[in-house]
């Protein structure tokens, strides 16, 4: 693929720099700094939530920015770039590519997946279709998206609920599609990122394991608590041993 964007991200890391309103690092200034840190660390592109963050990150780093908007609507489960409203916001902010929920679930305000993709085609923007199943990836590809991402596997009730990345979906999508398949979702350590590339992923997106320190700290704290709890019976046995023989 000769497109400069895809040449830049081929077999590289894309870092998702996102923090929702209830998270400690929420704020465009912080996300711009996070993106700068990701660039220094070797990221080839950034994935960002919200027009303000996209603008701030574009000013902070020379990397392409994949933009999305997470917004809740009362009449739909879809909240990643659900409608043309979000698309327009991201285009105005200068996103290099727009990521959106490409599942076939009902969209808000009567929007349809087909009409949304057609609108993005008319605006001339690159599209990353976030999918959760092979069928969804094939349908999105048939509608002319530029790439698919396994972002939503495990986040729809009908997709595999595994703790790690959906490597099987990556393999199947790579075999079935002629467009790039991006690995994203539940990638917690470098070895899993390598496994995704070995499964055929064109590039790998990592978010929480890099940019959400509260989740990183929680994983360490939980592991330490489990280890401490497992060690308690042995410690008790050692402490009680001498008394048993006195």
UniProtKB/TrEMBL annotation:
<keyword id="KW-0413">Isomerase</keyword>
<comment type="function">
    <text>Converts N-acetylmannosamine-6-phosphate (ManNAc-6-P) to N-acetylglucosamine-6-phosphate (GlcNAc-6-P).</text>
</comment>
<keyword id="KW-0119">Carbohydrate metabolism</keyword>
<protein>
    <recommendedName>
        <fullName>Putative N-acetylmannosamine-6-phosphate 2-epimerase</fullName>
        <ecNumber>5.1.3.9</ecNumber>
    </recommendedName>
</protein>
<comment type="pathway">
    <text>Amino-sugar metabolism; N-acetylneuraminate degradation; D-fructose 6-phosphate from N-acetylneuraminate: step 3/5.</text>
</comment>
<dbReference type="Pfam" id="PF04131">
    <property type="entry name" value="NanE"/>
</dbReference>
<dbReference type="GO" id="GO:0047465">
    <property type="term" value="F:N-acylglucosamine-6-phosphate 2-epimerase activity"/>
</dbReference>
<dbReference type="InterPro" id="IPR007260">
    <property type="entry name" value="NanE"/>
</dbReference>
<comment type="similarity">
    <text>Belongs to the NanE family.</text>
</comment>
